[in-house]
Amino acid sequence: MEENYRFAPQAEGCEKPRPGLLLRGTFNLYRSQFRRWFAITAPTSLLAAVVLWIANQQIATMLRGIPMYELSSHWGVLAGAMVARYGSYFVAWFLGCFALGGIATVVSDLDQDDSEEGAWIHDSHQRTREHFGSLVLAAFVTFCAFLAGMAAAEIVVSAAFRAVRWSRFARFSFGAGLVAYVVVTSIVSWFGMAIPLILRDNAGIWTALKKSVKLSNGYEGALSFLVVQSTAGSFVAWYATHHGLRLLVPNTLQHTSWYGWVVFTVGILASAAVEPPIFIGFSLLADPARFGVPASLPGTQSSADVY
User: Fold this and answer.
1) I need a surface site. Which of 7, 17, 242, 256 has the fewest CB within 10 A?
2) HSE-CB of 168 using CA atoms within 13 angstroms
């Protein structure tokens, strides 16, 4: 992997964060090994989509035949629907963390076996499986942080509704929700380096989370940019797929039973293709020397210093 980092200038004398350098390194690496990143994110994205679809089907089955005005009296059904909904969200979140582990493994050259003179370990997820328990815990903590952030954002948005009246705010509700999502996700991204640190340094979960927040100091803007890129890229990829296939596929085929599944699958794969940059950014920031920032900078001390 070393040849892929030659674009990174040496910064031995650097005394402050260099978010521009991080972003350049992220997108250069994304372009140089696109096929490898896509091979990591595509399976997890498809599996997450299937899990969410199954959950939707189960929830629809649970609620079928129950009038809306009677839902409040069916606590057991509502509880089951909530478990299915948030359980599927967590599984999808965990699969994203699993993909992050695979990308971090490649970025930090953890898929090489030093005992065999650097022979490649062809499975990029081996290191992730070895730290499966820590990965689940990291996914759970960050997922709970995201839910707490979205709950707080919902309170703020609801207060805005009451302050300016729903009739005036209604047309901005989608935009407000999207902005809230980006803000909350940007804050949660400060924990994004925890999984690469767990895999690279065998760090404990709480140590990795604390060090991740330290590493994000000075790079909040770059991380927010990567969040926006991932969110906007997914939207654009999905809608481009939907409308592009409508232009390419004859009308007679668009009404077949399998056409919807084709659009669904291609849309998920298109979204998976634009996901890697944020994971690459997390992985590079967890290992600053990879993009030219010395590990001796404040907040980027080596694992030995942390312990």
Assistant:
1) 256
2) 6
